[in-house]
Amino acid sequence: MGTVDRMIVHIALGQRAWIHGRVGVYRSRCGCSKRFQAPVPGVPKGGRYSLEVRNVVANALVRDRLPYRMVQQRMAEDFHLRLSLGYIHDCFRWAHGQIDNAARLRWAVENFSGVLCIDEVHDGGRTLLYATDPLNDFTIDFDVVEKNDQEHMDAFLKALRDRGIVPEVAITDGSPLYKYALQEIWGDIEHQLCVFHVIKEVNKLLLDAVRDIKNQIKRQGNKGRKRRRGRPSRQQQQRRSARSTLTRKEQARFIWQHQHLIVKKAETMSEQDKAALDEMLRIAPALATIRRFNQEFYRLFERGITKQQARYRRTRMVNHHAYQSNPFLAHALKKVRKERFEKIITFLGWEDGERTSNHVERNNRSFRMLQKTRYKRRREHTIRMSIELDLYARMLKHPLFDLRLREGPPLKQPTAVPTTAPSPHREAA
User: Fold this and answer.
1) CA-CA distance, 62 to 58, in Å (whole number)?
2) Quick check: is 251 in a domain?
3) Which residue in 151, 173, 192, 209 could disulfide with 328, CB within 3.0 to 4.6 Å?
4) Digits of tens for pLDDT over the chain (429 positions)?
5) Are 134 and 356 in contact (CB under 8 A)?
6) Residue 238 forms part of a structural domain
7) Where are the alpha helices (DSSP H) in 258-303?
8) CA-closest candidate to residue 259, choices 326, 320, 205, 196
9) Please, which residues bridge with residue 16 across strands?
10) Range of the domain at 131
11) Which candidate, 182, 179, 180, places its Cα nearest to that of 165?
């Protein structure tokens, strides 16, 4: 029937640009009198912007993890394009349609090392379950559930099994959801409890013991003569500074300010830390028992020892009279009771065994970053889309990903404009 001229907004750094296309207009042969235009290469059907614009917006959202408002600002400053929030969200959905999530899952199963790391993260009444491979450093799969209970956890683990994931070791925190589920689903699987979480639980009890000693010293200081209100005179301050020892109240304050030194590893302490620790032990000799307990507890999980050596060290701590007579230390020893301790030292039986769930915890932090200021991603389907886009992009950058099998980038590049078409018109900024 004829031709029409189309001006499609395009990308040009620091300038405004368009694709000028002259396309044919055709009438249907069936007699319905419908008309249609020929497509323009690199432009979606009926689109006002080229695919290159969508690709730049999608990369800013997925790769650079920018909030929608920041994407608006970048597009306006760099390309002189004023885009609506609705169009930016449409680019996000378009990008998700360009990936093959099934291919990513197949790749994860093929490259699984045999070590499974599982954890959950809570977000606005929902729970995200993550499963990662810490040895090969990638995320296997995830799920968004309404409630963090045994039913949803069992369904998530069974879905991993049905996809072909057969782990030899599973690393988790101390949640009771994993206590029986792992063996019921995979049978002879070794369970590694996260050493970091166990140390955190025990150190909290040790700091409670330090606080108890501090309070005892403070109570002893309160029994003396009460001082007048207000700031001491200069003479009183000079006499107090000349004294070699601190008052009871000052001793309690000193212990409270340096309590972290009781649970700090010896190899990471500076000379100043060592001097402060010596002063704490001089003020309260009872702290020496807590400090010795802490250092011996760290040695339970040293790399390079055998499981039998770790058991011997634990037995010596359990049979130590001074540890059992202290209620806080006795409670801490229950955290490494025999049946639980075997799960904590599973990593000692493997040459490259992981002993913490830090790898999957990094996924949790990554998810928090994805959610920050992204208010259009508060529904379950948008959360799933954002995570799948992120995991697919990370897969393409992974060293184990074979570039020969790569069908395309995480976000499809627009089709190049043919050389016979007119060049894009540019307008100076």
Assistant:
1) 6
2) yes
3) 209
4) 678 777 888 888 888 888 887 877 777 777 676 777 777 888 888 788 999 999 999 999 888 888 889 999 999 999 999 999 999 999 999 999 999 999 999 999 999 999 999 999 988 788 999 999 999 999 999 999 999 999 999 999 999 999 999 999 999 998 999 989 999 999 989 999 999 999 999 999 999 999 999 999 988 866 555 566 777 777 776 665 544 467 888 899 999 999 999 999 999 999 999 999 999 999 999 999 999 999 999 999 998 999 999 999 999 999 999 999 999 999 999 999 999 999 999 999 988 788 999 999 988 888 887 777 666 677 888 889 999 999 999 999 999 987 545 444 444 433 333 333 333 344 333
5) no
6) no
7) 271-283, 287-299
8) 205
9) 427
10) 101-194+356-405
11) 182
Q: Do 251 and 328 fall into the same domain?
A: yes
Beta strands per DSSP E along 167-303? 169-172, 190-193
Instruction: Give, for 143, the enclosing helix (H) or strand (E).
Output: strand 138-145
Residue 330: helix, strand or coil by DSSP? Answer: helix
Residues contacting 420, CB < 8 A, separation 6+: none
Q: What is the pTM of this model?
A: 0.79
Angstrom distances, CA of residue 291 to CA of 24, 284, 329? 83, 12, 11
Handedness of CA 310, 312, 314, 317 (dihedral sign): negative
Task: Note whether 383 and 393 are same-domain residues.
Answer: yes
Task: Scan for tokens 């304050």, then name that residue.
Answer: 253
| Chain centre distance of CA 70 | 23
Q: Tokens 């000692």, residue?
A: 348
Q: Which residues pair with 191 in a beta bridge?
A: 170
Residue 148 is which amino acid?
Answer: N
- The strand ranges marked E within 11-137 are 16-27, 35-37, 115-123, 126-133
- What are 127's strand-pairing partners? 122, 145
Look at residue 236 and tell me if it is in a domain. no
Alpha-carbon distances, residue 171 vs 158, 178, 280 (angstroms): 16, 10, 37
Do residues 129 and 153 touch, judged by C-beta distance below 8 A? yes
